[in-house]
């Protein structure tokens, strides 16, 4: 049983460290609101991962995967949310382009509160049905014989959420240590535009894939 949990943990770690929308949101919110905004975003994303694990454990994720209309609806909602976040970042760049806060090295976008940052991380993960599909498709490969599928899946979900929280928190802490550099006008503008472009591209790609 220990070997099973270690194997799953290593696999989950490899999947988690791959850059994605959650990592971009953590970086963006850390630059805008500091370390605690980044950590709140990380905790929100990990909470969303745990929610998907619970859904997979009771079979909701499997049902969603088989129900094409519902799956497409969730994907489209997630795509729209990613595009919205991208447009938000792009708008912040355009507002700062004329001067003001951007000239002093601060982002023109308002600093997100911890609650708002948490909700952004949570929604980003909840509106990504691929997280649920991950549990439905991958978890069965690690399930040991003679154990409750429900309890083991939930345990895997807790492990995955803990790994996500730890990794994304480390990303936030590292970003916080380099805030002086990240908040330089040119660096900040490049970061915002890159985040905007990647988030919008991911959203559009998701929408196209769902059509």
Question: What is the topology?
Answer:
Elements: H1 2-17, H2 21-33, H3 35-57, H4 60-66, H5 68-97, H6 114-126, H7 129-142, H8 149-177, H9 179-182, H10 185-210
Textual characterization of the structure:
With 211 residues, the chain is mainly alpha-helical. The chain has one domain. The chain is built from ten helices and no strands. The protein has helices spanning 2-17, 21-33, 35-57, 60-66, 68-97, 114-126, 129-142, 149-177, 179-182, 185-210. Helix 3 (35-57) packs parallel to helix 6 (114-126). The radius of gyration is 18 Å and the shape is globular.
Largest sheet: none
What portion of residues belong to β-strands? under 5%
State the distance separating the first and last CA atoms.
Answer: 41 Å
Task: Give the total of domains.
Answer: 1
Task: Give the SSE string.
Answer: HHHHHHHHHH
Helix content: over 70%
**Helix-and-strand structural type:** mainly alpha
Number of helices: 10
- Overall geometry comes to globular
Instruction: Please state the CA-atom Rg, rounded to the nearest Å.
Output: 18 Å
Low-confidence stretches: 98-107
Mean pLDDT: 76
Number of strands: 0
